[in-house]
Amino acid sequence: MGTASTRKAAKKQVSADVRRERLVAAALRVMKRDGIAAATTRAICAEADMPHGAFHYCFRSKQELYAALLSTDINLTLDAAWPAVVPAADPAESIRALFRTYWAAVQEDPETQLVLTELVHLALREPELSELPAWEHRAYHDKVVSHLERFMDEAQLELTVATRVLAEMVISALSGVVSSWLSHRDSAVAMEALDHFAALFATLTRPRRSA
Amino acid sequence: MGTASTRKAAKKQVSADVRRERLVAAALRVMKRDGIAAATTRAICAEADMPHGAFHYCFRSKQELYAALLSTDINLTLDAAWPAVVPAADPAESIRALFRTYWAAVQEDPETQLVLTELVHLALREPELSELPAWEHRAYHDKVVSHLERFMDEAQLELTVATRVLAEMVISALSGVVSSWLSHRDSAVAMEALDHFAALFATLTRPRRSA
DNA sequence: GTCTATACGTGGATAGAC
DNA sequence: GTCTATCCACGTATAGAC
Fold this sequence. Notes:
In chain A, about 65% of the residues lie in helices and about 5% in strands. The first copy, chain A, has helices at about 15-35, 40-45, 60-70, 75-80, 90-110, 110-125, 130-155, 165-185, 185-200; strands spanning about 155-160, 205. Chain A has a two-stranded antiparallel ribbon with strand order 1-2. In chain A, helix 5 runs antiparallel to helix 9 and helix 7 packs across helix 8 (about 165-185).
């Protein structure tokens, strides 16, 4: 089998798709550190320890990188909080715990939130990318819906509103709280709002009556 | 007194602060039309029918223009919806009407929402401007608090939570809904979420017992 | 297939002419 | 005080050497 062409190369011949991944990761690092505006092709390549020219045989244009970023890992970090759901006795308690877990993840890595928002706004302006935020939102929405369904199932609860409506409200509330927090950076305020939202959302549930 | 130095000039001597205002207005137009990234000093001057060089004797740097933008009119359009409050019999009804008025304003001029968000994010990255979002949020928060107090007063209601907590929740919910809507552009979904939020917030009020 | 050097356009800011 | 011409740095993209 070949030693330097298609698979793994001898020493420095590292690339094909792996370079793409490295560039995406490097771009994310630069964006988190210095903001999306500072993530130039030069800066990204430098961060990835690649020559500047490497960029354009991995991506046809910078927009392709944006698309790659929006399509991959970012929203994964968002719903990484959901799996650790603890269905407690009290619905309000459960939802509050859920939100607090989510919030802990946000607190731990706020830059990712900022970058995600910046990327979405950038995409909203570029006609070529304008569908990506809608896709991303829909994907996230669907995930929240299924998480909610599982959650309600395990807690033996049912909703008094459509699941998709609650999902939309949850997403809006969470992103709203995050967005406010990015401005004022007062964690206590954010957490307080979050707890109250949890309590309000809990009033939209009721014990499931078994048929 | 002088004809061309300090006050109003003969014909073309229009400038001093008025140029600043024109540039700010032009910048806002460009940003709303083409996004914040397209609002270069050249594009702004062209929009304002000024030579490019005019920019730098009105503003020492571009950041000064950003600061001017964030300090002025933008959030005014946000709370322009609040004054037309109609204190109806049912609290839920009143709050829903309030939110719908706000939403109508957003719908009528969504670009402003986008620009505002973009500006805030830009400011969050620039160390020199990083305090502006906090100020802006605080100013808006205070406005919502006083609006809420007046509203509760007129409707003879009292809150079961601190006013500032509800204000924070209202701001978060509204900005969250707007932010989601910017992605999916489904007005029905946004309005549905808004109505449900109104209903939930109404449960945080109760009739005021006169002492 | 990998990388260097470079082209081309643009952005912010300034020096100096009117 | 107003504006033109220009400087310099940087961004994307490409042609072509290894």
